[in-house]
Design goal:
Number of domains: 1
Radius of gyration: 18 Å
Protein name: Ketoreductase domain-containing protein
Strand order of the largest sheet: 3-2-1-4-5-6-7
CATH architecture: 3-Layer(aba) Sandwich
Structural class: alpha/beta
Helix content: 40-55%
CATH class: Alpha Beta
Strand content: 5-15%
Order of helices and strands: EHEHEHEHEHEHHHE
Distance between the termini: 38 Å
CATH superfamily: NAD(P)-binding Rossmann-like Domain
Low-confidence stretches: none
Number of helices: 8
Number of strands: 7
């Protein structure tokens, strides 16, 4: 894995869960990171951790990136998102890596029970927010005549063979993220901007913590995951983010990387094993 020294990465939804792990991993590999989310206090705590590590590594001769926090709600107005990206851009310089991680799941609903306000909340965060963040960063990269990498965190719930009962709005929004990634790759390739999606399986995060507290979950993994276990965000997901952030992925764009231990592979519906 190539080091990311000199790279600047912006990670949304970085106050906890997957985003926090992505920020830590990118910084440990040399990138300066801008962590963005709504909860500023949690972001500042993460920045303290990253910056303390950078100081210690500098003494030891190792290279670790620094971090700054930007308060940002990706479901907000386009102007607010654009302003936040402008502030982030001014901190370390051009943002060459964007990790669109911010997301929300919403309650389990059937198509007949889904509420419009719930649908709008999910789509404004998962799909609209990903598009507007990509737009804000990409237009600045184009103006600066610089290439970059957009990494969109989707889910296997967005894959046709992994439809989850009660997850209509979430699954459709994540399918949209996958398609958006392909469109971005197609349209932005001429500017040396690549875009890829990561379709993640079930990983521990803030929105899944309650599920991981249930004793039966590990027993289920042996039945529905060919790998026989649930994955760890680091290194199972962070390794893919590091690859797509580095110059080693210059010829990789428009792809969806499925990271789920094989959960989406079985030909029979996974829920028949429960």
């Amino acid at each position: 894995m190539a080091l990311l020294e000199g790279k600047v990465a912006l990670i949304t939804g970085a106050s906890s869960g997957l985003g926090r792990e992505f920020a830590l991993s990118l910084s440990k590999n040399g990138a300066n990171v801008i962590v963005a989310a709504r909860r500023k206090q949690m972001l500042e705590s993460l920045c303290d951790e990253i910056n303390d590590l950078a100081k210690r590594n500098k003494v030891d001769g190792a290279q670790s990136g620094k971090a700054v926090a930007i308060e940002l709600d990706v479901s907000g107005s386009e102007s607010a998102i654009d302003d936040a990206v402008e502030k982030a851009w001014a901190v370390f310089g051009p943002i060459e890596v964007l990790v669109n991680n911010a997301g929300t799941r919403g309650p389990v609903r059937s198509p007949l029970d889904q509420q419009e306000d719930e649908w709008n909340t999910i789509f404004n965060t998962n799909l609209r927010g990903t598009w507007l963040m990509s737009k804000a960063v990409a237009k600045r990269l184009v103006a600066a005549k610089r290439g970059g990498s957009i990494i969109n965190i989707s889910s296997i719930a967005g894959l046709e063979r992994s439809l989850i009962p009660g997850g209509m709005a979430y699954g459709i929004s994540k399918a949209g993220v996958i398609h958006l990634s392909k469109v971005l790759a197609l349209e932005l390739g001429k500017y040396n901007i690549r875009a890829n999606a990561i379709a993640a399986g079930l990983f521990r995060s803030e929105i899944t913590n309650s599920l991981f507290e249930k004793d039966w979950l590990n027993k289920v993994a042996a039945k529905i995951v060919p790998a026989g276990k649930w994955g760890n965000v680091d290194p199972d997901l962070t390794s893919v983010v590091l690859l797509l952030s580095s110059d080693d992925s210059q010829y990789i764009t428009g792809n969806t990387f499925i990271v789920d231990g094989g959960q989406s592979v079985p030909s029979m519906p996974i829920w028949s094993s429960l």
